[in-house]
Amino acid sequence: MSEVFTFFGLINEDHNFIFITHMLLSAAIALVLGKMAVKNLQVVPRGMQNVMEAYVSGVLKMGSDVMGRRHALKYLPLVATIGLFVWAANMIGIIPGFESPTANINMPLALAIAVFVYYNFEGIRLHGVVNYFKHFFGPVWWLAWLMFPIEIVSHFSRLVSLSFRLFGNIKGDDMFLAVLLMLAPWVLPIIPFGLLTFMAFLQAFIFMMLTYVYLGGAVQADHVEP
Q1: Of 94, 123, 133, 193, which residue is most buried, by most CB within 10 angstroms?
Q2: Domain count, the chain
């Protein structure tokens, strides 16, 4: 929303500049949090180490439920990094003077394309091109002509599922907050901050969960290992 004040807008009012700087700021926040967590590792974790260990353990547990612990461990760095990045991008939009880069379709779509390409690459790498695309034909051979195009459309629709869900929710939150700031800049916005914070966490969680689900469907055979 170009009409809303942002600190980076004082440097350059071009919205592409504002979007890129907020995206880089989100990445910097994620990197700083990670650096703080490993700066002074202790046997009994405290402070940021404790928070990040709880976060990583939660992401691992989520992935283990979806695709088994061995696969979840392998893709933990990717999913946990995406989650932290998306969370930081969602959260900064709640702070007046900043804008969520996830409220711009370019960032959610770029993340969705990266996940889409990567999980298909992993599926092909592990099973081979023929075996990977074989399951697109479905379990009944005489319905293969119908199942294959349905599966193709289904997989490409995941780009929409990942990107537009995140974009739409965060864009709506930003517009809601902007209206509140214009109507009652000091008192009223305090009330929905809790809800907006919850939505920032929720959308990051959903993006991570869907990433694990799509990776699990690509790399697993026909069972979930313990």
Answers
A1: 123
A2: 1
What are the pLDDT digits (tens) for 38-62?
Answer: 888 787 778 889 999 999 999 999 9
In a domain, 224, yes or no: no
pLDDT of residue 222: 45
d(CA 93, CA 18): 12
Neighbours of 29 (CB within 10 A): 17
Contact of 59 with 43, CB cutoff 8 Å: no
Alpha carbon distance 207, 41 (integer Å): 29
pTM of the model: 0.88
